[in-house]
Amino acid sequence: MLIREITVTPVAFRDPPLLNAAGVHQPWALRTVVEVVTDEGLTGLGETYGDLDHLDEVRRAATALVGLDVYRHNDLYAAVARSVGDAVVTDRHGLIGAATREKTVDRVFSPFEVACLDIKGKAAGRPVVDLLGGRVRDAVPYSAYLFYKWAGHPGEAEDAFGAALDPEGLVEQARLFVDRYGFRSIKLKGGVLPPMEEADGIRALRDAFPGHPLRLDPNAVWSVETSIEVGRALDGVLEYLEDPTEGIDGMARVAAEAPMPLATNMCVVTPGHLAPAIERRAIGVLLIDHHYWGGLLRSSHIATLCATFGIELSMHSNSHLGISLAAMTHLAAATPAITHACDTHTPWQAGQDVVAPGALRFVDGAVPVPDGPGLGVELDRDALAVMNEQYEKCGIRARDDATYMRAFEPSFSTRRPRW
Ligand code: GKR
Ligand code: MG
């Protein structure tokens, strides 16, 4: 079955002022929607980042893929690799680790691979989970992903989530998410306040939610010493500590002293990082993310490899829409090694989506694998058009949390380590 046509559509949707080590989320988040159409008239969907440098690579790769067979995964990957050439696409926010050429190819390939799996599922009349090994769970547990945040974007009214700048605010935010979605695990995005203040926030969450596993992720802005100190202070409280410090070497030094496992979506972000991380025992948990690990099949292979070496799996997330949530859910449903609740930013999108309502929902903190063939989601073309118009008008062409933050706090620094 040959690819007849590919449409690449950038979109923008409202995003609240979520704080992190890189600064603060801009009022609009960007994504790119990929539609692959075959000579038999089947359509598959993929979703990826919206930053312009990446979008340019995705557009170029789309042209290179026309005429190829959706079943020839290796040929498709080789065509994307040729199209990318020596390009290395870097993020400005720096929250998913360093860029490499290999990671660039994997990122560009991912939405096309997901779209081809969607097509293959539709052709076979089976959900994508069945093409990845079959389900080991009917619904995928996700975590409540908490952020320190301002009440609203400066100059705008307070948003529906309100402010969260202290332990009480965090507990209130967690209560909202747990009550509304039923989440049974909680993650706090840290790297915003002095580390011991964030540890106080975790303790408040522990008191308020005694049965919920907790994680803290400061995106590598702590020194090795600070990381060990915070790790010891939170002994027995955290399920895992995510990216406390930068680099495989630093993480290995913390891992040797901290009482809990360390997780990462920053120091192991491409296959080449695995051998040194395993050798140094730098991580206990890998947060897999099909958006930069080369799609669902390659992510599934990485998960198997990790399990072989005793590394547990969870899943990383950036601001995303429903095509990604569907893909993440199929992957996690088919991957026995993903034993920790996955991350998702979905609640922060407050219902904005490019997929038609109904296919994706949270039940007791988990997303049931969508019914129907392929990914099980359909594009809402009106919503896509609206979000594409928002992209054209919003003026943002790359995620840049630091520059946005400096508009309000001119001395804001992204130095690492910061504490
Ligand atoms: O959305 O601000 C954010 C997060 O900080 C995100 O960009 C990170 O990549 O969720 C991510 C993480 O776990 O590091
Ligand atoms: Mg992280």
From TrEMBL:
List UniProt keywords, sorted A-Z: Lyase, Magnesium, Metal-binding
Which pathway is this protein assigned to?
Answer: Carbohydrate acid metabolism; D-glucarate degradation; 2,5-dioxopentanoate from D-glucarate: step 1/2
Which parts form a coiled-coil structure per UniProt?
Answer: none
Positions of the Mandelate racemase/muconate lactonizing enzyme C-terminal domain: 167-261
User: Which EC number(s) are documented for this chain?
Assistant: 4.2.1.40
Tell me the InterPro entries matching this sequence: DgoD-like, Enolase-like_C_sf, Enolase-like_N, Enolase_C-like, GlucD-like, Mandelate_racemase_C, Mandelate_racemase_N_dom
**Which Pfam family, any one of them, does this sequence belong to?**
MR_MLE_N
From the UniProt record, list the reaction(s) this protein catalyses.
Answer: D-glucarate = 5-dehydro-4-deoxy-D-glucarate + H2O
Q: Which cofactor does it need?
A: Mg(2+)
Looking up Gene3D superfamilies in the UniProt record yields:
Enolase-like C-terminal domain (3.20.20.120), Enolase-like, N-terminal domain (3.30.390.10)
The entry sums up its family as follows:
Belongs to the mandelate racemase/muconate lactonizing enzyme family. GlucD subfamily.
- Name-wise, this protein is glucarate dehydratase
Q: Which organism is it from?
A: Microbispora corallina
